[in-house]
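Researcher: Structure prediction, please.
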Amino acid sequence: MRVIPLMTAAVVTASLYYAVIERDALLAFARGEQVSDETASSDVSEPTHASATTAAAAAAENVASQAAGADKADNSGVRVVALRSTARGIDSAVVLRGQTQAIRQVEVRSETTSTVLSEPLRKGAQVKAGDLLCKLDPGTRPSTLLEAKARLSEAKIRVPEARARLDEARARLKEAQINLTAAAKLSEGGFASETRLASSQAAERSAVAGVATAETGLETTSAGIEAASAQVAAAEKELARLDILAPFDGLLESDTAELGSLMQPGSLCATVIQLETIKLVGYVPETEVNRVTIGAGARAELANGRNVEGKVTFISRSADPTTRTFEVEITVPNPDLAIRDGQTADIVISAEGSKAHYLPQSALTLNNDGQLGVRVVEDDMTVGFYPIQLLRDEASGVWLGGLPEQADVIVVGQDFVVAGVSVAPTYKEVSQ
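Model: Predicted structure follows.
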C-alpha cells in the first residue's frame, strides 16, 4: 500500500474539518484573537454568525445590483463587435498580370506569282533591313519591261510630229483669216463677188477645225506617253517584287520559303520579329485605370524570375467589351534578347499613393439603396454608414477608401442594424 495517498487524504480531511467545523475558531485565529474555552468560543460564535449573515446579504444585494446594471446595459443597445481601425498608407502601385510581346512582328509575304530561286534561311538567323529573304524567278518580266520601254520611246517620237501639225494648222488658220478679211473689204466696195467671200469664210472655218484636230493629236500623243510610262513603271515594280527583302533588323521566327516552291500573292516567305525592345502588355480594371499615366515607371517579374523595368507607353481609350478592362503597354529595353515573346509577367506600375483601411471582406455590407459600404460606431454609440471605395482586394482582406482617419467598423452584427440604431459594441483588436 502506498503511503503518500493516505497522507494526502489525511491532509485534505483535516483541511475540510477546520474549514467547516472549526470555521469560527479559524477566523478568530486569522484575526489574531484567542479562544480560551468552549464557552467563549460559543459566545463569539453567535455574533460571528450574525456578521456572516449580514455580509452575505450585502454581497447578494451587490450581485443583484450588478445584474440589474448589466440587464440595463444589455437593453440600451444592440450588441455588436467593432474593429478599431486607423487609415494606413498603401503602396503607390497598380498590380496586374500580362505577357511580353515583340515590339515588331511581320509576316513577309509574296506580292506576285513565281517560283523561289534562293536557298532558304533558317529560323533564328539574324537579318538586317534590306537583306534578301526570297528571290523569285523573273520569267518573261524583263521582256515585258523592254516592250514597255519601246512603246514609251515610240510615243515620245510622235510628239514633234504632232506639234508640227499643230503649227501648220495654226498657220493655215492665220492665212484663212487674212483672206477672209480681204474678201470682206472687197465685197463691201463691190470689187469681189459674194462667192469669193463665202469661199474665204469656209476656208477660215476649215482652218479652225484643222487647229482643233492638231491639238487633239498632240494631246493623244501626250496620253500615249503617259500610258507607256505607266507600263514601264508597272513592269519595273513587278521585277522589284521578285526580291523579297527584310523590312527591319530582327530575327527570323520561321524558315524562309524553300527553293523551288511556288509563291503566289499572299504566300508566306518568312516571319521577322524585333526583340531589341520588347513590350509588356497587361489589362487594368476600370476601377484603377485612372491611376495609370503615360510615362509612369513600371517593373515586372517574368515567369523565369527575371526582373525588368520600363515605362508606360500606351493606355487604351476603349475597354474590352467582355472583361471591361483597358490595355496597357510598357516598353522595356532588351539589348541581349534574353526576354522572349509571349512570356508571362507580373507587372507593377507606379501610381499616386493613398491612405486606406485594411478590413476583412465580411465587414462589407449594403444599405437600403444597394450602396456598398461599411457600418461604424459613432461617438454617441449609434450606427453610421459610409460608402467605400474598393482600392485593392487581397486574400486576407480588402483595402478600403472613403472612411475617416479613425473608424470603429462593425465586423459582427452589421447586417442586423441600420444607421441611427443604438449599439453596445465590444471592441476587437486589429491583430485579431
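Model: The longest strand covers residues 268-285.
Researcher: Thanks, that helps.
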